[in-house]
Design a protein that fits this description.
With about 270 residues, the chain is mostly helical. The protein contains 10 helices and no strands.
């Protein structure tokens, strides 16, 4: 299928770049600041001074589960950005008159080869766009069957196939949207497990380890759920763009091609 090889390479490099960028930010900024804040709070608690622990964004983000969630978020956004750019490129064709049919003209079955030539001369990438494919398929079907119904069916089949293809290509994004909360719950389980393993220290009065572990449990789920909400919002926006492309393509074909078709012959006019 079209652009599959390019899309796969893009996804691989997007994941690598997202991993490098997020890990660099966590190593150089987030974790050093979080460790400094936690050490200061531990020192104040050990001294017996009364203090209120402030909820720092560095502490909330410091753990490995949050890092993984941000990597997946950037990866999903990169994939959706590519799909949105491709959809925008295809939408630009809806502003063109690819068939150049004058208003009021009639198209007969023996005209289809002439009308198909400009579509066949497009660059291979542009030929793979939905609109040229739908128009070309409709012209070929009308030229062979001489019926408007077959041409309309060809357009509908092309649009339905494209809709299914676009939906299937979002499978990875949907998986990421599912995986992010799962990673957050993994952090919750890990944090609670660490807190339970230090319960004996809490009984003795040292609750630092327990509070830090519980922080891991709740912070990871909090960040994962927030990121999941963001991913799902952009996913629905992308799906809306793609659905509009398919519907507008059908309208374009109806306006620029189907209403000009004539099942008769020029000699009958």
């Amino acid at each position: 299928m079209r652009r599959n090889g390019y899309d796969f390479i893009f996804q691989v490099f997007a994941l690598i770049i997202a991993t490098i960028v997020v890990h660099a930010v966590f190593v150089t900024v987030i974790r050093p600041n979080a460790d400094a804040i936690l050490q200061a709070q531990a020192a104040l608690q050990a001294s017996g001074q009364a203090f209120v622990a402030e909820r720092s964004i560095y502490v909330v983000l410091r753990d490995y589960e949050q890092e993984a969630c941000f990597i997946l978020m950037l990866w999903a956004l990169a994939i959706m950005g590519l799909k949105a750019w491709q959809t925008k490129q295809e939408r630009s064709f809806l502003q063109l008159d690819l068939l150049n049919i004058a208003e009021g003209s009639q198209i007969y079955s023996n005209d289809t080869a002439r009308l198909a030539e400009p579509l066949q001369q497009l660059p291979p990438l542009q030929q793979s766009y939905l609109l040229p494919r739908a128009l070309l398929q409709a012209l070929r079907r009308f030229g062979s069957s001489h019926t408007m119904g077959d041409a309309a069916s060809a357009i509908k089949e092309s649009c339905d196939t494209e809709s299914d293809r676009l939906d299937s290509e979002l499978a990875m994004v949907r998986y990421i949207a599912w995986a992010i909360p799962s990673i957050g719950f993994i952090g919750t389980v890990r944090g609670i497990g660490e807190a339970l393993s230090q319960a004996h220290k809490a009984v003795e009065g040292d609750i630092v380890g327990v509070t830090v572990s519980l922080g891991v449990a709740f912070n990871s789920t909090f960040i994962a759920l927030v990121i999941s909400i963001v991913i799902m919002f952009f996913t629905h926006q992308l799906q809306l763009m793609q659905e509009r492309l398919v519907l507008d393509t059908q309208d374009y074909c109806d306006t620029h091609l189907l209403r000009h078709l004539n099942v008769g012959s020029p000699t009958e006019q």
